[in-house]
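for the recovery benchmark. tokens below, seq after
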């Protein structure tokens, strides 16, 4: 059982790393700081974009990773 949890934890860790690497940066550099936020049609539909889905996925995979790591810590002791 311990080996199965270790393997699942490792896979979740790799998935979390891949999701974070695939996401685009949240800052737009100096142009975003000086130009301000533009309220366009595309900005209003951010909840449906790939970045929004990846952001939600990151939260769920991170929670799964934390829980698996805690469970693994309890099982080992």
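predicted aa per position
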């Amino acid at each position: 059982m311990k080996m199965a949890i270790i393997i699942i934890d490792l896979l979740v860790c790799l998935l979390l790393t891949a999701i974070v690497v695939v996401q685009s940066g949240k800052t737009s550099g100096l142009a975003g700081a000086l130009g301000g936020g533009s309220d366009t049609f595309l900005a209003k539909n951010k909840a449906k974009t790939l970045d929004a889905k990846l952001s939600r996925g990151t939260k769920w995979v991170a929670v799964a990773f934390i829980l698996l790591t805690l469970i693994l810590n309890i099982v080992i002791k």
